[in-house]
Fold:
Amino acid sequence: MSPPPVWFMRQAGRYLPEYRALRKKAGSFLNLCFDPVAAAEVTLQPVRRYDLDAAILFADILLIPMFMGQKLSFEAGEGPRLSPALLNEKVDLSIDQISEHLGPIMETIRLCRKELAQSKALIGFAGAPWTVATYMIAGQGVKDPAALRSFAYNCPEVFDDLIKKLETATIEYLKNQIKAGVQAVQLFESWASGLPADFMREFCVAPAARIARAVKADHPEIPFIAFPKGAGHILVDYAEKGIFDGISIDSSTDPAWAAEQLSPKVTVQGGLDPLLVVQGGDAMHAAAVKILQAFEGRPYIFNLGHGFVPHTPPEHVAELVKLVRT
Ligand code: 1CP
Structure:
């Protein structure tokens, strides 16, 4: 049995000393995103260090709201801020000029592709409409989606319009990434957890499927991965849409359940608890082996159930890659 391909969510980032050095030089996270030479370097750092099978573009899901007219900043230790928040103010959001803002990101992609070996995939990404909308509405990351759902119920026209605009912008953004050189795309739905099933079907599954269909209409050869974190049994709905090539599972998903319930036509990805990589040793080994065994004999990509946390020891990542490869 040949080992599965391996890459990691947040494989570039604060747990790597070489990232922290470049980030310090750039002054801010956004400066780093908009400097193609530095962003390409950060994208390639983990691939060089661990010989991973794929690089993921260094950018952020919150660039799209910024291109649509909200002001984006990252306050140290506090996470992202978008202003004005749609909860407080009516904002004139425009998606007509999205492509005018994409120059530096596309240049990062071209630089990465030039540097990467042919055998390594470059993965592009975007946030899914609901997840991006949560930040746009609240003006920041929120743990409890109640206020956001109330906004959707109270202002259905504004909410629908926002989701549609995000869908259109995301399609455009992903198509441009593919034209610049990414060979697979992943849609991050980081805030699916806690949503009523029908709400999730309408505002997470359906928009993701429409985005995948539109992207694949132009680029049928590009694998499309959905990562609906916290979607639980609605993962089956994603698989049954028949449009996603890959489905990434979070750490709360039982690998044995996923192997049984998700159509064998989709490639499953991920699952390992990122905190086990902080731990390392036997606990990390045992969990990784259990996941590998659950997906033996079907297409599977090794990854985490969510991104690395900043205090992950880089040497544990090296150990994990070695384990997967042997
Ligand atoms: O240096 C720093 O301080 C910035 C930390 C950081 C990094 C490294 C942020 C701020 N974004 C990123 C890069 C990033 N973000 C990537 C690059 C590629 C890689 O994975 O290596 C990707 C794919 C993202 C996607 C992203 N941004 C998501 C979806 C995935 C997830 O983690 O759920 C989300 C929700 C964001 C928003 C965001 N960006 C950054 C922060 C601190 C946050 C907020 C997260 C939260 O609300 O919990």
Notes: The first helix runs from residue 17 to 26.
